[in-house]
Design goal:
About 15% of the residues lie in helices and about 40% in strands. The chain is mainly beta. Strands 7-6-10-3-2-12-15-14 form an eight-stranded mixed β-sheet, with no helix packed on it. Helix 7 packs across helix 8.
């Protein structure tokens, strides 16, 4: 995938980084003075809250169960500058769980500080009464609390410890968030007999990034009930890591971003192996091994390899009389798409049997598309499941099979040597089509080869054609007709809108887009039920304008860019459009009797860059009583690096300005 993620893969055998900085954050729990309330923060004058310090640490320690645990500590202080920053005063602490066993939250303290009459007043959180627990799923519990007595100007701080027996759950650390952060630090202490992959992403430079090698003893105790406990001491090399980011800006939502969490300054960890003096063991397998395990898993691939004779009652009538495998596949796909309801669009495992999915006609994206795969195989069509991550879920890593990065399942069928990807969870999606949300880079076919795929947004081209003819009727009124062929994905969105709110509401919104008094008649949408093709929109319209000495006509009408989608002056992460695009707009106008052209916009053709990755064309001319205009915007790729942002911003500034210029007609004297 052609994106610049700025992630680095760091292994535990990194060489020592010399010159460790001695800088420390100058805050301590419980030490808040009146001067702390009157500080001015230059990092962001518009901030609603500022994170003064956010410091975390993780280390592996011996436990009393004959093994090792993870100990994670976090301290955080925030200044709430106004009520718009109060959301950060509610904190959620995720805890991993398996059955009755879950990570332990300990030593939680949370205090609100207010300045009253020159004195600092403390209000402590009652951790017994006001910490609430939500069971999100079988593996995730959330402990939640809200700071008491918060006001504009309050300072809040909290600290806690999490003890975990799940060594694969080494806590990640985000150095950025929704608010600017003055100091964010993460310290990590790891023994040499546990190996982790470090996955780092983001665009902020580390103020401190060090590693120091030492040696230490790890004490493990095995309780033997009434008998004496066994004590083991293991001497090992230890690596102490420290990462600090200073003055990290808030991560702001902008247009054309798959998800901001792809670009947050962050570091994550994945346990790969343990080594001597422990019994050697590999935790992070190869893709081939992971795919093989998934194919044998009863919550994924195992139901696909069974006989599944119960599918015959549905599949046999569906494919009866079909002349070839392509026709069979289309019938099966249409049946599942049109008769099943998706209950969850973010899941990769089965929660119920495929037989029950068929019976209830309800299921998650994994359940419906795995059922589709099973039905295809029953019809003797080569089919495999594919796992991917949708754009809003974040990027995956092609090198490492980290399953938490995947959240979606589709079906891949091969017919006459052609590979076709199917998603039967979207009611108005055509055969062989995926929504742009699926085009998020690396994906995997779960087969014996664990075949890698690349769903690149650059590979999608959305073409749109609009044509308007403007004339005068026998009453001298300006009337026109429009014909439009939206691209496939816009057509899909329109089908969704019409299904939800109807055609009348759709055309009502079109009328609003004109920005002037207009009447629409003879409205029509063709091919709305032909889901494999784009739709066609057509209508006639009349402009209700008083005859004046000067008449202003924007030839783009409601199709012009009204504002630049790139508003911010600078951007630190890439522009990720859902697809490349090619929009053509054609306008023809007969000048009304009694009028002549006073002003006409000038033509222009501008390339986005020397490589020709985009172009804006605006050609307008007059021939006798006829005005002809053609506007075309081409973007040949969907992904642009952050350093190309200013180029895109200026490109669209020019488009907005030009497309909102007007033709001026004046009465003949």
């Amino acid at each position: 995938m052609k994106f610049k993620l700025f992630f680095s893969i760091l292994f535990l055998n990194l060489s020592l980084i010399k010159g460790e900085a001695q800088d420390k954050v100058n805050v301590k729990f419980g030490k808040v003075s009146p001067e702390d309330f009157v500080k001015i923060y230059g990092i962001d004058s518009n901030a609603n809250a500022v994170v003064i310090a956010d410091v975390g640490s993780s280390q592996i320690i011996g436990n009393f169960k004959g093994w090792f645990s993870l100990e994670y500590k976090r301290y955080c202080r925030v200044h709430l500058l106004n009520k718009n920053g109060f959301d950060i005063a509610t904190q959620e602490i995720p805890l991993y769980s398996e059955g009755e066993n879950e990570e332990k939250l300990m030593d939680l303290k949370a205090v609100t500080y207010n300045l009253e009459n020159g004195k600092v007043i403390e209000t402590k959180l009652d951790t017994k009464e006001n910490v609430f627990k939500d069971k999100i799923n079988k593996n995730l519990v959330i402990k939640k609390f809200t700071f008491p007595n918060i006001k504009e100007g309050s300072i809040v701080e909290f600290q806690y410890t999490i003890n975990s027996d799940y060594l694969r759950n080494l806590q990640p650390w985000a150095f950025q968030g929704d608010y600017p952060t003055l100091w964010s630090e993460y310290d990590l202490r790891l023994p040499g007999f546990f190996n982790y992959v470090f996955l780092s992403q983001g665009y902020q430079r580390f103020y401190i990034q060090t590693r120091k090698n030492t040696r230490d003893n790890f004490n493990v105790t095995q309780s033997n009930g009434v008998e004496a406990s066994d004590h083991i001491s293991i001497a090992a090399d230890v690596a102490d890591y420290r990462w600090v980011v200073k003055d990290a800006p808030a991560l702001k939502e902008e247009g054309y971003v798959s998800t901001v969490k792809n670009h947050i300054q962050k570091i994550e960890f994945e346990l790969t192996a343990q080594s001597e003096p422990l019994a050697p063991h590999v935790f992070l397998s190869s893709w081939a091994k992971v795919a093989d395990d998934m194919l044998k898993d009863e919550d994924f691939g195992l139901p696909l390899s069974k006989d599944n004779g119960w599918l015959g009652d549905v599949v046999k009538p569906l494919i009866a009389g079909a002349s070839n495998k392509m026709e069979k596949a289309k019938r099966i796909y249409a049946y599942v798409r049109d008769n099943f309801t998706c209950t969850d669009y973010s899941e990769k495992w089965l929660r119920q049997s495929l037989k029950n999915v068929l019976k209830t006609k309800n299921g998650t994206v994994a359940e419906i598309n795995l059922l589709l795969t099973a039905m295809m195989r029953y019809a003797d069509i080569y089919a495999d499941p594919v796992i991917l991550s949708t754009r809003s879920h974040g990027y995956t890593y092609a090198l490492y099979p980290i399953m938490s990065k995947f959240n979606y399942v589709i079906c891949a069928v091969t017919i006459d040597g052609n590979q076709i990807f199917l998603d039967a969870t979207r009611p108005r999606l055509g055969f062989g089509k995926l929504t742009p949300a699926c085009y998020n880079g690396h994906a995997r076919i779960i087969n014996s080869e664990a075949t890698a795929l690349d769903f690149s947004a650059d590979s999608l081209m959305e073409r749109k054609m609009t044509s308007i003819l403007l004339n005068t009727n026998n009453k001298g009124e300006l009337v026109g007709s429009l014909q439009q062929l939206p691209g496939y994905f816009e057509s899909h969105e329109i089908r969704e809108k019409i299904k939800e709110k109807g055609k009348d509401e759709f055309f009502k919104n079109i009328k609003k887009a004109y920005g002037q008094d207009v009447e629409l008649v003879n409205t029509q949408i063709d091919s709305i039920d032909n889901l494999d093709e784009s739709i066609k929109i057509s209508y006639d319209f009349k402009l209700n304008e008083e005859k004046a000495d000067l008449v202003y006509v924007n030839p783009m009408f409601g199709e012009a860019y009204k504002e630049n989608p790139f508003k911010f002056a600078e951007r630190f992460y890439p522009v990720e459009m859902p697809y490349a695009s090619d929009e053509t707009y054609i306008f023809n106008m007969f000048v009304p009797d009694g009028y002549e052209v006073d002003e006409l916009p000038k033509s222009m053709v501008v390339k986005l860059n020397q490589e020709g990755d985009g172009q804006f064309e605006y050609r307008i001319s007059q021939s006798g009583n006829t005005i002809s205009m053609r506007s075309r915007i081409q973007l040949k790729r969907a992904y642009f690096q952050s350093e190309e942002y200013e180029m895109l911003r200026e490109f669209f500034n020019m488009i907005v300005k030009k497309q909102n210029e007007q033709i001026v007609l004046k009465k003949k004297k």
